[in-house]
Specification:
The protein has about 280 residues and is of the alpha+beta class. Helix content is about 20%, strand content about 30%. It has 2 domains: about 60 residues, no CATH class; about 200 residues.
């Protein structure tokens, strides 16, 4: 069944399907909007009690999907000691960066330079460092936050495919996260140079950031932006972006900076703001 699912993803018009989903999700027609929200929440078991607004208070399904939570719904761990989970979700993979490669699944990996959309010199900064891949399921809170304090250095929007990013596809599609559309955001801070990469997926209608940007989701050409001198500083736990449907976040830290929690293994659930690593740099 998983082989058929993967084969179908190669055949369907991924971007056209995602753009259609985006138009439907952006609709502000009350009956369609509220019906989509209610059916989605019931189908995926969304915890509506955490949301800051009720179903009838959203402008569109997209507005609901990127919903803010009630104050205190995601308490932050002590950022003086720990790296924080940037999102709700589950651990897909974690471990060391070795030979310029990141593990995707058993027998599959991809390069740091590919997923970052950067040159060899910047990619080499992460050699021997640490990575974690976090999968966001449909029911999860879909805003992405800072795992550590940092100043935005640069971003790269890289166009690509829109394969699903679930476990079956990760195990069956080579270089999945380095092939899909993505936005890599790099920061400098007390924990060195680190990256948070937002990876799109099938039916993902968009990726956005809290700072002004010039890229356009589903575009055909890369967009690289340099934020040097703009002093865009963020504290650990601050919101940095959001997914309009989807997807996955990949974190990268330089060597000697973090030590992942020993109990975190693939499929371990995460909540935004909880401690995922001890700061050692």
């Amino acid at each position: 069944m998983s082989d058929l699912f993967i084969a179908l993803q190669h055949l369907v018009p991924q971007h056209a399907l995602s753009r259609l989903a985006g138009r439907i999700a952006a609709s502000q027609t009350p009956w369609l909007r509220d019906r989509l929200i209610r059916r989605f929440a019931a189908a995926y078991g969304v915890d509506l009690s955490e949301a800051a607004r009720g179903i009838g208070e959203y402008a569109s399904f997209n507005d609901f999907f990127t919903r803010e939570l009630k104050p205190g719904a995601r308490p932050l761990a002590d950022a003086a000691q720990f790296i924080l989970s940037p999102a709700d979700g589950a651990v897909s993979q974690l471990g060391p960066v070795s030979g310029g490669r990141i593990i995707q699944a058993k027998g599959r990996d991809y390069s740091v330079a590919e997923i970052l959309g950067c040159g060899a010199e910047e990619a080499a900064r992460f050699e021997g460092g640490s990575f974690m891949t976090i999968y966001l399921s449909p029911k999860d809170y879909h805003r992405v936050h800072m795992p550590a304090a940092g100043t935005l250095a640069k971003t790269s929007y890289i166009p690509g495919h829109l394969f699903s990013v679930n476990t079956a596809t990760a195990a069956g599609v080579d270089r999945l996260f380095a092939r899909n559309e993505r936005l890599s955001c790099r920061f400098d801070g007390p924990d060195g140079h680190f990256a948070s990469i937002m990876v799109g997926a099938m039916i993902v209608a968009g990726i956005d950031t809290v700072w002004p940007n010039t890229f356009r989701t589903h575009a055909s050409a890369p967009v690289h932006e340099d934020f040097a001198g703009q002093d865009r500083r963020f504290a650990a736990g601050d919101e940095m972006g959001r997914f309009y449907l989807g997807s996955t976040v990949v974190l990268l830290f330089e060597p000697g900076r973090v030590a992942w929690r020993e109990d975190l293994v693939p499929a371990a659930p995460l909540r935004m703001g909880e401690a995922i690593a001890r700061r050692i740099g």
